[in-house]
Amino acid sequence: MSKKTIMLVCSAGMSTSLLVTKMQKAADARGLEADIFAVSASEADQNIESKDVNVLLLGPQVRFMKAQFEGKLAPKGIPLDVIDMKDYGMMNGENVLNQALKLIGE
Amino acid sequence: MTNRQEQIFTYLKQQPHGMDASEIAEKMSLDRSNVSRYLNELAKEGRVNRIQGRPVIFKVVEELSEGENSQQFEISFDDLVGAHDSLKVSIQQAKAAILYPPKGLHTIVFGETGTGKSLFAECMYRFAVSSTNLQKDAPFISFNCADYAQNPQLLFAHIFGVKKGAYTGADEDREGLLAKADGGILFLDEIHRLPPEGQEMLFTFIDKGVYRPLGESSQTYEASVQIIGATTESSEIFLTTFNRRIPMSITLPPLRNRSIDERYDIVTLFIKQEADRLRQKIVVERDVIMAFMLYQAEGNIGQVKRDLKLVCAKSYLYYRTHEEEYLKIKQKDLPLQVQKGLLKIKEMPDRVERFIDKSSHYLTFEPGSQDVVWQQDPARDMDVYEAIEKKVTSLSKEELAEVDLEKIIASDVGQFFEAYVGELARNDIHRDLISDELWSLTDRLYDIAEEKLGRTYNEKARFTFALHLQGTLERIKDNRIIVHPNLNDVRINYREEFQVALDLSAIIEAEFNIEIPFDEIGFITMFLSMDLTEPTKKVNNEVAVLLLMHGKSTASSMLEAVQELLGTENGIAFNMPLDMEVQTMYEKVRDYVIEHKKDMHSGMLLLTDMGSLNTFGNMIFEETGVKTKAISMVSTMIVLEAVRMARMGRTLEDIYQNIQGSFEGIIRDQFRPKKKLKKAVVVTCFTGEGVAAKLYERVYPVVNTEEVQIFQLQFLEKESFRERIDNLIEEYDVKAIVGTVDIEYQNIPFFSAFDIFNGEKLNDFKRIVAEEIPIEQMITSLEGSLKSVTSVPELLQSLQKLVTEIQTDAKILVEPGVDAAILIHLAFMVDKLKNGEKARSFTELEEFKRNHRIEFNVVKTKLMQIEKKYKLMFPEDEIGLVAQMFVENQVRNFY
């Protein structure tokens, strides 16, 4: 299984950083090689260009940007979704990682 | 059909003006009475027209559709608008699903009504054939699971087949759709309507490739079929089982997510298609194209197509009756809803201009010879045009001179349109719930009521009544007696409606051979007097808002602020400098009212600050006769609310009650101790048991009843109902009201019965009553990560309160779950700011503030508590970003 690059986007890029840590931990525990990072909405575009992102997850507070991102990601074939509210609220890294992997199709 | 008949038909075809029976008989040397019989047969089939007169002339109906010289092409993905843009990914997925070895993947297509799911499925089939993954003659079977949803057994039998003797009436083996689709594709539309046993069998088939027809116990059958399912349900709530079993899911975008370029292509494509079908040039006003590109079509592309078809039919009528050279479509011919699209031009001027040169006022669509055919296209039929054509031809000979043709046909066709449109407006679920019999009865009853009462009732009203009637019939059948507590009041207050209700009841009695008691008739009366019409035409009936205040410019500056906030000029301010006599002030106001009396027939609302001004209300009413309500101790917020509601065309009483109510609400909130309330939803109707019971059944499955209590209440009259809600609010957190009569109260989201039987609205409802994430769990998850604050629980609790307050004050209800996300966002922001980390910039801050000043200010003020407590400053940019989260994530259509 190749390395997975998972990008999280929220309004500030800060509330998701805790989630990133927890997801990374979950990935490590499974022996999964993953590059997980969080950025703010304004930095997202640049990262989509520069990194080989496999999947993008949006924080629930910026779910309104989904359509906008869909337009940008569809041509590249990168899947995206809004992070499950419950998992986000409880910072459940395990579940969010599952969500990301499911979107990639694994 | 006999040979002779065809011979006569062929002969008649060559007679451009038609011919009577004896002439034909003579010319063809046939017996006259036989010819006559054949002609009548042909007329019955609709192939020839009888032109009344003496003698009767027969003429071949001109064939409009399917001309011999047209080339037909089968639809393919490349023909779809947006194939290389918004649909690109979907098409790639679809192709992958077809090509996937060895036999393709089963696929489910998600998409709102009218997004083109069945068209898409047909394209998949065509692709499979052209890519030689399917044989040239492989079957493509299409079936809508809603068709037999009333009868699961029949549905099951239809899909999987049935063995002789499986049930009474099954007197032979019949093969199902799966067998018919062997070697090809089976398209199951509205697959979510499949009953559980059907789902189970379908899954067995998906997993193992085998199935068992109804009544077959020993043997299983095999078939090689690729399943394509389609559903309007969104994948979130859609049965997870489906998601697991069907490997490929494709979502088609709703119209609103499509680009303006694509909308242009869609509109022009459809007009072109109509031009082709009619083989006639269509000239279209520039604004018509614009309106169709921009209007909000809830039914997506399907609706655009239907709306265009109707407009074309109208212009075809004009073209036929005025013997025009070609069809013309003008802006004024458009339905109002479509015309509204033009209001959006200003929002996107430069983008729209590039499609159509500003100097050209018309666009011309010439009929071509190529016709891309979509087999199942419902708009393909030519019924509308044929109906017009028939009428025109049948009248043309004799009556042409005297009669106002257009008028005659317009009335006929008008009815046709209405029936056509009305039919379409009813979505499948609404239709499905009520038997056809009851629907047609309801329609009949309401048509009578409309005529007698000179009033129109919309689809919502009819639907609700049909539901109610179902309940009534069940009650009467079971001998359950219902008591109408205010029967006499209803009789007196709604005399006219009561009369009509009596007439209608007589019809119902005759239809079902029952006796309807007076109490039930009382309820029917209430349905007739209920106002469910859309609030559209009240624009000129606005309540006048007058603001009277002490001080040189207090009133005018307060009103100015409000007007600016709302971007309106409604309202008028009267300043009373402290040296002004009360008498002078009174005369000033009175004279103003007298002068503007003709604009005030909806009454006026008098807002005052204190003292003698409060007493003006009654005096002005007595002197001028203008209905007046006065509210004193006014604050800016009250003025804001009053002007806002007046502008929306709400009635005087309504505005008055609402302001009083929200006042009480505010005061109560201040004193009420905060405790954890159990959640509740209220379902209501006039009887409290008829429609309400149906609503209860509908919402029950989507509500977690351990957490949420459902109350079934009777709604007879507004006041007492509000009182009951007030009582409930003391004990419960009322999340939503679902009912037959629109209730706007205490800012509780309201869902109409019509809404709740609509999948998407039900989804909104579901989310609103969904469980919240308990704050304790959030605290646990964040513990240890917010290092700069001493107590995480304390921070989260105060932020939670703040998020709630912002929603109340800014009148925003955010999507459930988003509030928790905002809360977490704020918590981290506090932490970062405490650590002295740099804030982000919000580039569109100024613009955002301009457009959302109220929301911005509410957020800013509320955050001040936190600033104080944690000794920090929120930069404007961050505040703007937070406000944006509230604004952008709100649930639409509440408040």
Textual characterization of the structure:
- Chain B: It holds the Pfam family PRD.
- Chain B: Residues 433-538, 790-895 form the PRD domain.
- Chain B: One of its GO terms (cellular component) is membrane.
- The complex is a heterodimer of chains A (106) and B (895).
- Chain A has a single domain, classed as Response regulator (Rossmann fold), CATH 3.40.50.2300.
- In chain A, 47% of the residues lie in helices and 20% in strands.
- Chain A is built from five helices and four strands.
- Chain A has helices at 15-29, 41-50, 66-73, 85-89, 93-104; strands at residues 4-10, 34-40, 55-58, 80-82.
- The longest helix of chain A has 15 residues, at 15-29.
- The N and C termini of chain A lie close together (10 Å).
- Chain B is an alpha/beta fold and 895 residues long.
- Chain B folds into seven domains: 3-60, Arc Repressor Mutant, subunit A, CATH 1.10.10.10; 88-252, 3-Layer(aba) Sandwich (Rossmann fold); 256-380, no CATH class; 426-529, PRD domain (PTS-regulatory domain, PRD); 539-648, Phosphotransferase system, mannose-type IIA component (Rossmann fold, 3-Layer(aba) Sandwich); 670-768, Response regulator (Rossmann fold, 3-Layer(aba) Sandwich), CATH 3.40.50; 775-888, PTS-regulatory domain, PRD.
- Chain B has 37 helices and 23 strands.
- In chain B, the strands form seven sheets. Chain B has a five-stranded parallel β-sheet with strand order 6-7-10-5-11. In chain B, strands 17-16-18-19 form a four-stranded parallel β-sheet, sandwiched between helices.
- The longest helix of chain B is centred in the middle third of the chain and has 22 residues, at 300-321.
- Chain B is globular.
- At the A-B interface, α1 and α4 of A face α4, α32, α34 and α37 of B.
